[in-house]
What we know:
Layout: H1 2-18, H2 23-35, H3 46-50, H4 55-59, H5 69-87, H6 108-131, H7 134-165
Helix pairs in contact: 2-6, 2-7, 5-6, 5-7
Amino acid sequence: MRIIFVLPFLLISFFSYSQTASIKSILLDQLRTTHDKAHAQWFVTVNTAIEGLTSEEANWKDSSGNHSIAQLVNHLIFWDLGLLEKFNGKAKPAANINNDDTFSPTTKEQWEASVKRIDSVLTAWETAIEQADEKKLASQYSTIANINTHNAYHIGQILYIRKLRGNWNPEKGVK
Length: 175
């Protein structure tokens, strides 16, 4: 009798386990929700967070020494691109990098290029993850998950700055 009672639960558990998401799908979902696939309840994407900003707005800094939006975006580009190149076997890890140097301000032209560059780097990450096999992803999942978390952290800072400056439209998410 106990076996008959337990068997349906074991079958349900097995079926649920076999339907679980792959490492690839989880990492892609995390990346896309911080890149360009809005999930307004949880995240605003980086594309949405920086959309419509002028270089003057992107370079604004308060008097406390905090980073500007432009500096945050350039910092993300630096680390996301460097880690992508390492993931693709094209670069060695940066040695003796002063993290403060990755937060660079921009000119008007550089800001426009940075907006395009963050999008292209994250698109390249999506492609790399899509093309990678599960074995490679299993060995790199922690790094990729941390990239996604790092991106979300700095996007939060970008939104904070925009809210502080009064140039964030809450209809775009995170009211």
